[in-house]
Amino acid sequence: MTQLETMHPVLGKVIDNIEKVLIGKRKAATLTLTALLAEGHVLLEDVPGVGKTMLVRALAKSINADFKRIQFTPDLLPSDVTGVSIYNPKELQFEFRAGPIMGNIILADEINRTSPKTQSALLEGMEEGNVTIDGVTRPLPKPFFVMATQNPIEYEGTYPLPEAQLDRFMLKLRMGYPTPEEEFEVLNRAEKTKPISQLEPVITVAELVKFQEDTQQIHVENAIKHYIVKLVNQTRQYNSVHLGASPRSSIALMKAAQAYAFINGRDFVIPDDVQFLAPYILSHRLILKMEAKFEGLTAEHVIEKIIAKTKVPVQRTLNS
Predict the structure, then answer these.
(1) Distance CA 107, CA 147 (A)
(2) What domains sit in the chain, N to C, each tagged with a CATH number?
């Protein structure tokens, strides 16, 4: 990662704020903010109790955004997510009651525990920025950011996300366990109070939306674009890969690189941005051949090998 002294002064405060609650998870906080600035969404896969929910809550509090949590269960209906129109006999008309998807920061908790029909209720909102309910298309507020969680251990009673839905998540992250020193500090901070309750906003929603617009202006050299295309293209030609990354992943990698450069105080993307982000953006989009899985190969290993053998573009100047 880029040296912290070059980080955007305001966005650095957001990451510092999240670290007040999540100790030792600066990379996860930075990647989550990267997806938010790039107007993407995050799939967070990890065991219970490592701070998945706390990360989303801390992010929402840091930007003073409207936070909504959806607990996905087998009996959850699509209308429980999007909302429903209810007839009002006094007014003699239907009234729309918004579902929890009508928020800024959405936590889709244990998304793989509900049916594919309900999972798909999120798809239109994640991709289009609006939802269609009873034939009426309703825009979602800005910013709109979904972080979905799933447990990688318990598979009984779950519905694995289909490739089409996985492809709509810009990043896939894992939190990981804290070190003993970090866990000791967690105990110290939680001894007499809940750190999340003491968290104060450091920016406004309006400022974040402006930062999202600024992110789109970050310059991407043609050489960097060609580099992204080469990396993604090689996932489709790799012997151990049954299904490679889609063109949507190329766009996601470029947009995320713009956001990561912006966070790190630059107005242009460098190859290091692409290399750092590629495993988080491409790995969950690959389907390996069965024999590769038997050999212990993972999608992350494939991405690492592709990055290692792909020629890195040489920049003419730092501000080109």
Answers:
(1) 5
(2) 4-75+102-211 (3.40.50.300), 217-309 (1.10.8.80)
